[in-house]
Structures are given as structure tokens and as C-alpha cells.
Amino acid sequence: xxxxxLLATTIAALGSVAGGVRVVPHxxxxxxxxxxxxxxxxxxxxxxxxxMNSFHRRYMxxxxxxxxxxxxxxxxxxxxxxxxCPDRAGIxxxxxxxxxxxxxxxxxxxxxxxxxxTLPTWLKRAGYRTGFFGxxxxxxxxxxxxxxxxxxxxxxxxxxxxxxYYDYKISDDGERVLYGHDRADYSTDVLTDEAATFMRDSAAxxxxxxxxxxxxxxxxxxxxxxxxxxxxxxxxDHATFRRFADERLPRPPSFDEPNIADKPPGIRDxxxxxxxxxARISLRWRCTLAAMSGVDGALGGLKAxxxxxxxxxxxxxxxxxxxxVFFGEHRIPNGKGIAYEPSLRVPFAVFVPRAFRDARLxxxxxxxxxxxxxxxTLLRYVNRYGGSASPCxxxxxxxxxxxxxxTPLLNxxxxxxRGDRGVLVELDSRRTADSAAASKRRRVDPECNCxxxxxxxxxxxxxxxxxxxxxxxxxxxxxxxxxNRVHSRRYxxxxxxxxxxxxxxxxxxxxRGRESHTDAPFCD
Length: 524
Description:
alpha/beta; 14 helices; 4-stranded antiparallel β-sheet
């Protein structure tokens, strides 16, 4: 062991304080003892715009066999907020938008504060080899061009987010590479192959790895020909599409909602869906299933490769979508960003090998979790199993993590110690973080003209819109959000409690139990 590695292991064993975050390893059980001094590898699979309705064993059997059936499926996972760039910034930092400063897709990455102090740099400092493969934060190239993002040893990034299945460009460690329209160029397979090579090479060099595999599926792309012509996801080929060509569009009670008089402006003005619109939504649904079938097949092949390389027993696998999308719910034909369940709740599952847990994984957890929980979870696993990691770069510059570690839910199916969790969902697609004056200059985001703050608990969704509208839904009695209860006397107490909690969350920083050097409330 090198002197640096020995020092890191010694610090981890004694416990350390870094940037107000005290890291004290759990007592090691039998499984932990077998893995002591050898922290896990991480494979983080992020899909783009997958809703809950397509995350089903019928459509993704290989993904279920590998990650869901053998791991823990989180049934109440949230994208906070449900829009690509601010959600991914939350993954990178473990923070809410008011702390990492990315409020929307535009200008995107340019607004991220302290860009060299993020999850990949924390893991790299802890001795990990880090790789990124796929779609990164929006408009990254406007800031850094073809260069790899800070903290990544291997960089394989899609450059044009409008062409991401065929005929796309890649920054391959800073070199621009063009892929064509042959079947072998299908991006889902190319990204998977590159990630597999990276993981095998890292293992051969004796380094733990963090591989972020960020598929573009099932995000829409503009096409002029083929069965998915139009603004739809792109399947690998015609044969894959034909397998789903007769699949019926799901129609939950909120589909083409008959009465939207209780909804805020913008939703209340939507017309009923006509036949042509429903036909377009149905086609997008079928193309979505076909594109996700491509992801499912790629993950099945990746599992086989990791098995052959003897890496399955040492790799924690996380599957997550950055947000959901609408398929006609509440008369919304497409898009995302709005804090309703179809765009807010996302597929989320985690597989933890036996060596990194002391008990059997529960097959499901109904605790409220969010994208902010990824970073603290990974850091906790590193520190629990022989490594030394902190949310700091350099050691004197640390982020305060708003998310919670998921390890209590994954190590034997525990529950949160602190009651009914409320997750902050905040988005302002017209805001910049440059200054107080700049925040007044509203720049409309064409993908989601949304501005609101909301709190989501297991039972309630309460939101306050920039247009002065408010919404309150009792998800226990009304999971499809058909009745806005914000003016109901019956829910007056709940509304006041939620409004008070939301006001606190809007200013929060970090979690209780971590040292605080700020007057901001905790994000409990």
C-alpha cells in the first residue's frame, strides 16, 4: 500500500472532520470486515426523461433481473426539480438549486458554483478512477468546450444534445469524434461499450472506479423518417419498434383531465386533447418503450461483461432517471418541469452486493428520496468500507450536503430516523444566479416556462407558483392530483404546516448532525 493510501485508510479508521462533515465509520460486521480496506466500485446509470409508466419488468426485464429484483426499488423517488440540468447539478453536488445555483437548463452549467468541488472530484481525491459517458449538464461546452469536466479521468461526452442517437458528435477525452448512422453507431450501445472498457481497465489497474453512464434515452430527438419520425425517442432499429407498435398508451384518471378549474393559470387554460394530439402522444409512448428496450438490452450485456471480469460482487449499481415527462396527464401533451407526479416521480433502484451490507436488502422502500441523496450515499459507502472521502476540494473548501445518505435504507431495509421527510422542489426557468439584479432579468427557458417552490412529503404536494397560484394535493387520497385542496377548510392546518416548512426549506443548507457554520436552517 502506498504511503498516501495508508494515511487515507488510517484517517478513515479514526474518523475525520472535513468542512463541517464528521465522518465516522459504522462498526464493521462480517460482510464489512471482508471488504475492509477495499471500498466498492460504483456504476451510476442515469437515463434521460424516463417516467414511471415505462419502468416495468415487462418492458425492461434484464434491468429488473440485475438491479431491481436483487436490489431495492424506491417507490417514492423524486427529481428535485424535474428538469435535466438542475437535477443533474443536484446529483453532482448533493444540494438544492438555491445552494448550487443551477435553476434551469438555460444557461445551465454556466450557473454551477464552485465547479471543481463536485462528486467526481471528491471520489478522485479518495483514490477512485472516474469516468463519464453520455449526456452531461446542459451547455457545458459553452464554458469548457471539449475539455473534460473537473474530476473525471475518462471523458466521453455527447456534444450535440439535439442529435444523440445517430449522427452525433463526441468529446473523447477532448478530441471531437463523429459517429454516423450505422447500427453500430447507436449511442446507447456505444456509450455502454466505452463504460465497460473503462471499468475493466480500472479493475486491471487495481483502482476502484466511479462510472457515470448517462444515456440519452428516452429523450426525444427530431427525425424526418422512420417509424418514430417527428419529435420522439429513437429506437435502435425498425425491428425493435415493431415489438411495441401495438402497445396502448396508459390513460390514468388524470389523462385529459375533464375538470381543471381548480388548477393554476397555464394549466387551467389548456384545451382537451384532440384525436391527432393523442395519436402523437401514443407514438411517442411506443418509441419510448422501444428506446428503453435498447437500454435494457445494453444493460443486460453490461452485466454479462462485469460478471466475466469478476466485478459484479464489488460494484454498487444505481439506476435513476433525471425526471419524468407527461403523456397527456392534466391535459399536458408532453414536456416536464411542472411539479406534478408524472414529471416529479422517477424510476430509482439500487443494487448493493453482499460484501457491502450486513443484512438482506429490502426489495422496496417507500421512503421519500431524491437526486440530492446520491452524493452523500456514495461518500458514506467509501468511508464505511476502508476509504476516506469528503465533500471538499481542497480540504478547506467544502459543500454542505442537503441530501441524506441512503445507507440506512439499503443496509437491511431501515427507515429514516427523522419522521416525515419533506423534499424541496424549486425551479425558476427565467432566473440567473449572477447577482440580485441579474435574477430580476427574466430569461424564459423554452423547455419549461416554470417558476415555483414546492414541498413534497409522502402524503402531500404543496406548491407556490411565481404566478401567485398555489396547489395542495393529498396524495394518499388523491394520487392522481385531481382535486386542488389549497382552499379547503378541511386542509387548512396541513396547508399552514406545509407553507411553514416550505419557507424553511427555501433557505436551508445541510442536514442535522453535520456541523454548521451558517445561520441557515437544516434541510431536514
